[in-house]
């Protein structure tokens, strides 16, 4: 009941894939990549750090709308419940980070999106489609 929600900002690393469960629920899954960036004063440039990957699962209407609205490479903001899962494969142990999404949106710091409401039932026919465009060039003004 008192679960902590986290917010992760990153880029879609795999094309979203939807499935319908045996009970008729839609679930959409994709991977989200986020890379730390730091200013390197010695080089006078930004450098990339390690990249973290999260498996994101979106259920019901959110899942349907994600499938219709999100494409590979797009910048997103995802809020959800973080689960760290320990697994073993081929004799090696590893950790997997999974987000059960509560809210997903395009990162408007890196582009422009237009929102349209989905029709009451969700699904492909009435799903929201956000169009992301590159940001407009910055305007500079000369100061006398």
Description:
There is one protein chain. The chain has a single domain, classed as OB fold (Dihydrolipoamide Acetyltransferase, E2P). The protein is built from 2 helices and 6 strands. 18% of the residues are buried. By secondary structure, it is mostly beta strands. Helix content is 10%, strand content 50%. A 5-stranded mixed barrel has the order 1-3-4-6-5. The chain is globular. The longest helix is centred in the middle third of the chain and has 10 residues, at 60-69. Residues 122-130 and 136-144 have low confidence and may be disordered.
Helix and strand arrangement:
Blueprint: E1 5-12, E2 17-20, E3 26-40, E4 45-59, H1 60-69, E5 75-89, E6 92-106, H2 123-126
Briefly note the CATH topology name: OB fold (Dihydrolipoamide Acetyltransferase, E2P)
Strand arrangement across the biggest beta sheet = 1-3-4-6-5
Number of helices: 2
CATH class wording = Mainly Beta
| Distance, first to last CA | 59 Å
- The CATH superfamily is Nucleic acid-binding proteins
Total number of distinct structural domains: 1
The major sheet is characterized as: 5 strands, mixed, barrel
Rg over CA atoms: 18 Å
CATH architecture: Beta Barrel
Structural class assignment: mainly beta
Quick take:
It contains two helices and six strands.
Q: What attributes characterize this protein structure?
A:
OB fold (Dihydrolipoamide Acetyltransferase, E2P), mainly beta, 6 strands, 10% helix, globular, 144 residues, 5-stranded mixed beta barrel, 2 helices, single chain
